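Notes from the 1:1 (GR / supervisor)

We went over the backlog. Supervisor wanted to see one worked example end to end before approving the batch request, so GR pasted a single chain during the call. The sequence is below; no edits were made to it. Supervisor asked that the structure be written out right there so they could see what the output format looks like.
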Amino acid sequence: MSAAEIHPNDSHKPPILPTSRNAHSSSSLGDPIGDHSLGLSTSNGKPSPAPPPKTLKRTSKVSFSSTSFPERGWDDDTPTNGNVLDFRTELPVSRRLTHTEKHITQSLGVAYEGNWSFCKVFADGSSMASGYIHIKPGGRKSSKTVKDNTYIFHVVEGAVNVKIHDTAYIIAQGGSFMVPRGNIYFIENICERTAKLMFVQAREITAGEQDDPLRLVRGQSPPKLFPALPKSKLFVLLGWVIERLLKRFVKYRKVALAWYLRSAMKVGRYVQGPKAYIAFFVLGFLFRSLGPSRSLLPRVNVQVIRD
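Structure output shown during the call:
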């Protein structure tokens, strides 16, 4: 058909331009998938409905690095120590209050048994402590008893297989587990990266036990050995008795010294020769036992002289 033979009623209709989709469908008419996708008529004359669009699966995976996160570096200038009030003295002391991620890496020591590293972060006397444990891939922390302590672990990264008493559990990143006091636990890294765990250790302070007996926390007052004895009546009475005994001992020591001098003069006047040596030796033993020595037994010095 030429351009002059175009019907006048069709002049308002835009010309249909062939597209790549139409060209593809016209070249593959025998393909039923192409007919359904274009909405062509079937044998009964009714147009077939177009199928819903297919959902495409993403083939690219988003990878997150275990060492990078959006907030990395925000706490580079955060101080580790701060002033707080001491629990017993109620005086301001300097304590470690924060521990950032970069400090954890610097604080980790040499790997124990070549498998895991440990660093202690916080401590509050002898009642509570916390820190981090890093276990290499395939590494394991051998069995350990917690005695009178209770441990709580939180898996920061990775996955571990932990055995508490006689039951094993698999804990992945974000999970936690507890080891009650009096039990044995064992941790094994089952992932292909370093397993990072944070732990909190707590114990109950028994009656009469002082907080932080080794004074590991600076600023804490030294503990008293017997805090309740100086205030008791029994201690005051015992001190008075000991004081009287010491005064009597000094008095009796003077009497014994005078008796020793008189006895020595008598022995020297009437006893001579070997008997005098034996007598002075015995008197010396008796007198030295009353001296300021810590032991009541006399001290004997024996010298052997060979020709």
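Supervisor's comment: Residues 281 and 303 are 15 Å apart (CA to CA).
Batch request approved.
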